[in-house]
Amino acid sequence: ACYAFWQGGDFIKNDEPQGNQVFCQMNECIPEVVKAMRAAIKETGSSKLFSANITADDPNEMIARGKYVLSQFGPLGENCAFLVDGYVAGGTAITVARRNFPSQFLHYHRAGHGAITSPQTQRGYTAFVHTKISRVIGASGIHTGTMSFGKMEGDASDKNIAFMLQDDEADGPYYHQEWEGMKQTTPIISGGMNACACQHSSRILGTPT
Question: Where does the Ribulose bisphosphate carboxylase large subunit C-terminal domain lie (predicted)?
Answer without folding.
Answer: 1-206
